Amino acid sequence: MNDPIKHSELRRLIHQERMVFFFGLVETRVRDKNKDNVSQLLLRNWSFLYNYDFSCHGHIWVCWNADVVKVDVFRMSDQAIHGFVNILAMNFCFNTSIIYGDNNASLCEAL
After folding, report:
1. At what angle do helices 35-42 and 4-16 cross, to 10 degrees?
2. Helix, strand, coil abundance in the chain, percent, nearest 5
């Protein structure tokens, strides 16, 4: 996600697949110090949550349009972010998990 061309591709995919309120990204390869700049270039006025506090690589990003959705995270780790999503206009709620399964078998087993 460090390349502006990838930003355009992701915005096109979001529009094409009508992901207008919420999605997760894994393996963005964005460094912690650059995450705020990249995320705002990617989707201005969206909200983002990252797991850099649990993994120096920040393998997981949760992205949502705060005008449409409310997200409450109830658990976060180096391999997962678990949350509760409320689509405000529809009063529709669901639990979600965005997972990054580590390549290391012993770490993945803990997941």
Report:
1. 50
2. 25, 35, 40
Backbone angles phi, psi at 51, to 5 degrees: -105, 35
State how far Cα 37 lies from the chain centre: 15
Which residue matches tokens 């969206």? 46
Tokens at residue 47, please?
């909200």
Give the separation between CA 9 and CA 102, rounded to whole angstroms.
26
CB–CB of 44/16 below 8 Å?
Answer: no
Read off the pTM.
0.89
Per-residue pLDDT tens over the stretch 51-96: 999 988 889 999 999 999 999 999 999 999 999 999 999 989 999 9
| Tokens (6 digits) for 54 | 């649990």
User: Exposed, middle or buried: residue 90 (CB in 10 Å: 0-12, 13-18, 19+)?
Assistant: exposed
